[in-house]
Amino acid sequence: MHIHVLGAAAGGGFPQWNCNCFNCDGLRKGTIKASKRTQSSICVSGDGVNWVLFNASPDVLQQIQDFAPLQPGRNIRDSGIQAIVLIDAQIDHTTGLFMLREGKVKREIYCTDMVYEDLTSGNQILNILGYYCGINRHDVPIDGNTTFEIPSVPNLKFTAVALKSAAPPYSPHRNDPHPGDTIGVLIEEISTGRKCWYSPGLGEIEPHLPPLMCQADCIMVDGTFWTNTEMIDMGLMTKTARSIGHNPQSGEGGMIEKLNEFGNARKVLIHINNTNPILREDSAERAELTRYGIEVAYDGMDIIL
Ligand code: HKS
Ligand code: ZN
Ligand code: ZN
Question: Could you tell me where the beta strands, DSSP code E, fall in the chain?
Fold first, then answer.
């Protein structure tokens, strides 16, 4: 299985347009050791030709230009992206659908009922796409047992589960969480049995997750914040990381401690916020991740399982 990181940053990217924190300012001025990142998305293939896009980042056009296999050039209009799986309805994971509106072939969209509801009500994006390419929407089962396949992306199968989280700020049920607002997905390459766990938004590792995560050869999880109070401490937000669905890396119950339970798997953080000290390659926080065998995703990273 080929996993390509199209974008590794959280919403807003890195540097974030309106931010002058130590990281963003330092990146612009070249005074820190770090590289820019676009908003989080991966694409995955089981044959190297047909790709499934996980989330549609607002940066998707640049991301496609930067990864040649997504334009195989077989016809006057063509794409290597055969289908799109949405793990939630957040702006940073769905707005790229507007950028993918051209063409006569309907977009194949895989999402839960909750995500479909948000994207046809509070945010009308899936309705609006009806005036352009149109969509074929497919339900994603979230019972953790029912696997699904995407016919146009051969040799892969998927198992999805609901994660504890909040619906986006614009959602009619923002303060009333439902299963399916956010999902994690176990991606399996059928021919090899190799597996990758993908959950860029992960507020808590609930008991139903380890049985799936422990099967994975590679675990890609939420790397948004280093501490639970990162945004509060910087005066940027009043909510904790956990309360907005992002388990921080450090501290008790943090991602470092939790990932340590999954022995041999490759561990990769993705959806990293611009404020996170792990973005600085020479930071003490990055060194601590390295000690625990945890990698930090970057734009263009290839993972071959
Ligand atoms: C910044 C942002 C922080 C950020 C927060 C979240 C908030 C929101 C919600 C997130 C993200 C980036 N970049 N989605 O100001 O530094 O309340 O549901 O998902 O990508 S969580
Ligand atoms: Zn986000
Ligand atoms: Zn910043």
Answer: 2-7, 41-45, 51-54, 81-85, 107-111, 135-139, 143-148, 156-162, 183-189, 195-199, 218-222, 266-270, 294-296, 302-304
Tell me if the bond preceding 141 is cis, omega within 30° of 0. Answer: no
User: In this structure, which residue's CA is closest to atom 15 in ligand 1?
Assistant: 236
Atom of ligand 1 minimally distant from the CA of 246: 21
Per-residue model confidence as pLDDT tens digits over 165-187 = 889 999 999 999 999 999 999 99
- Which residues does a 6 A CB cutoff place in the pocket of ligand 1? 10-12, 16, 90, 92, 166, 168-169, 236, 244, 273-275
- Amino acid identity for residue 254 in this structure: G
SS3 content of the chain, % helix, strand, coil (to 5): 20, 25, 55
Q: Give the H or E element holding residue 225.
A: none
Tens digit of pLDDT for each residue in 234-262? 999 999 999 999 999 999 999 999 999 99
CATH 3.30.565.10 fits 2-298, yes or no: no
Q: What does the CA dihedral 19, 91, 106, 109 come to, rounded to 10 degrees?
A: 120
Q: Where are the domains of the chain?
A: 2-298
